[in-house]
Amino acid sequence: MIAWIVILSVFFLLFVLLFLPITADLSYVKEFSYRIKYAGFVLLDSDKRVDIKEVKRKKKQKKSDNMSAHKSSGKEDNFFKKTYKQKGLLGSIRYFSEILMLLLEKLWFVVKRLKFTRFKLHITVATDNAASTAIEYGGICSAVYPILASLQTNADFKSKEINVSADFDKTESIVIASISVTTRLIYFLIVAVSAIFEFLKLQRKEREKYERKQS
User: Fold this and answer.
1) Whole-angstrom Cα distance, residue 168 to residue 209?
2) DSSP alpha helices (H): ranges in the chain?
3) Which residues are 31's β-sheet partners?
4) pTM higher than 0.85, yes or no?
5) Is 33 helix (H, G, I), strand (E, B) or coil?
6) Within 13 A of 99's CA, how many CA atoms are on the CB side?
7) Can you tell me the distance from the alpha carbon of 170 to that of 179, in angstroms, rounded to the nearest whole number?
8) Quick one: which of 208, 214, 124 has its CA closest to 170?
9) Reduced to 3 states, what is the DSSP secondary structure of residue 116?
10) Which of 26, 43, 108, 191 has the fewest CB atoms below 10 angstroms from its CB?
């Protein structure tokens, strides 16, 4: 009898935990940053300061092993920078827009339970060629606005600022984006697992496409 009480208590606790609120604050201004808050407690924060003494200790520990490698390779790019270098601005936005659209289409019943607030998007398209700037601007608009329209139709979506423009006087594009998403933990996990699955599928398709080109 006691064993059943313990088991039922554990299941009840897990059930309660799955339905507690979780909020993800995401932003991109040259670097991607995030903060995950669950039931009022901050679990992850990319901007959180680290212990200086701990950093120094780790640096001393690694210094003798990888000093020469560090000098030659430099700082490793994160996933977003790698994607940008491989695909460019237009290709990167199309790539992530494709993943988002697939998630919106397959998980519309979950998307309805997500609350999007403080959404801000500023994209200034600029290249060293006016024709290329116009082409990239059109491609980015065709990738971004269907996503926004789908969110406004199918979710609790409140946008703060949206501005996609072309600047023919500059040569470097600018992207600034931020959003806060709140939902229950169970829906957050469903979206996270599905996003990883769709990302791996796209990666496999691109790898197969590359292998066909090489053969």
Assistant:
1) 34
2) 2-18, 52-73, 79-106, 108-111, 130-154, 185-214
3) 29
4) no
5) strand
6) 19
7) 27
8) 124
9) strand
10) 43
Residue count of the chain:
215
Question: How confident is the model at residue 69, as a pLDDT?
Answer: 44
CA distance readout (Å), 166 to 133, 170, 205: 7, 9, 31
Judge residue 215's burial from the number of C-beta atoms within 10 Å of its C-beta, 0-12 exposed, 13-18 middle, 19 or more buried: exposed
Q: For 106-163, what is each residue's pLDDT tens digit?
A: 888 888 899 999 999 999 999 999 999 999 999 999 999 999 998 888 889 987 789 9
The SS3 call for residue 51 is coil
Burial 187-206 (b: 16+ CB within 10 A, else e): bbebbeebeeebbeeeeeee
* Count of other CB atoms within 10 angstroms of residue 166: 20
Cα radius of gyration (the chain): 22
For residues 45 and 42, what is the distance between their CA atoms, to the nearest angstrom? 7
Task: Answer whether 144's CB lies under 8 Å from 164's CB.
Answer: yes
Residue carrying the six token digits 């700082």: 75
Q: For residue range 86-102, what is the model confidence (pLDDT) as tens digits? A: 888 888 898 888 888 88
